Input
Amino acid sequence: MPTIQWTESMSVDVPALDKDHKKLIHMINDLDMASPDFLELFNEVLDYTNGHFEREEAHLEGISYPGLEGHRAQHDDFADQVARLLKEYKAQAFDAQDTRLKDFLWTWLKGHILIEDLRYAAWTRAQSGG
Ligand SMILES: [Fe+2]
Output
C-alpha cells in the first residue's frame, strides 16, 4: 500500500495549509481498507479535504492568485472523481485488497500538492520580490 510522508519540499510556505496537508496525509495513511467502518472513515477524509479546499481557495483569493480558477477546477474535478468512485463502491463494496479508493486519494493528493500547490507557493515567492 503506498504511503507518503510530508516533507519540507512539499511546503507551500503557509503554515495553516501545510498543517492541513500534513493532517490529510496522516488521515490517508491511517485509512484502513479492511475496517468495517471504511466508508465512514473515507467520508471523514473527504470532509476534511473539502474544508481544506475551502481554506486553500480563500487563501488564493486573498493573495489574488491568477491561477485560482484553474486551481478551483482541479478541486472540483477531485470531488467529481471521488463521487464516481463512491458510487461504484456503494453499488458493490470493494474488498480490502482492492485499494482503488485509497490509491486514488494518494495519487491525486500527491500530484496535486507537489505540482499545483507548489505552483502557487512559487508564484507567491516571486511576488515578494524573489
Ligand atoms: Fe490545492
The pocket of fe (ii) ion is lined by residues 56, 71, 75, 112, 116-117 (CB under 6 Å).
